[in-house]
Amino acid sequence: MSLSPDEDVLIGSVQWGAMYANDARTGKLLWAKSEDGIRFRSSSPSMHDGAMYFLSESSLFVLSEKTGEILAVKKLPFSVEATSSPLVTRGEIIFGTAGEGIVALDRKTLDIKWKYRTGKALIYTSPYTNGEMAQVESTPVLSGDMVIVGASDGTFYAVNRKNGSLMWRHKTGSPILTTVAVSGKTFFGTDFSGNIYCFKAE
Mean pLDDT, the chain, as a whole number? Predict the structure, then answer.
């Protein structure tokens, strides 16, 4: 479930069913969408300026949160069947993928701006994946121009949001499936073994 920033619209979905929007105050159904592969999505949408950004199968969708109108669709040459939700910045839309690591699209053109391939996944959580897949299930978070994300290869990564260059990384040895929490210049993350990590930006 996701609540719109103005708290008027509640977004939910049923896997293999549809995406739904309800009035947050009355519960009235506002719209439902299931076409164009929308019903297969794994991640929650990100809300920004009255639009919702989300991933489904191998596409990025942008929908109006109020009406459900499809504002844009970007077909991608790889699978995004992961639980990573898009991070929407001033110039980019950044997200994890089922096998290509972290990807950023230009926010205006939706063209691929950069890709950062993480290491081979230690476990396979996305559908129909194996082998040398670089899976990222967690949602990227932003601190300044630094994008921080944990990957299924057991590593926390910090990359530059503008060009995808590596700023730092920390290997844990255990898959990371959850999103990093940010508090000021401090970052907290956990791995699949139950360890908690704390990083502080300089």
Answer: 90
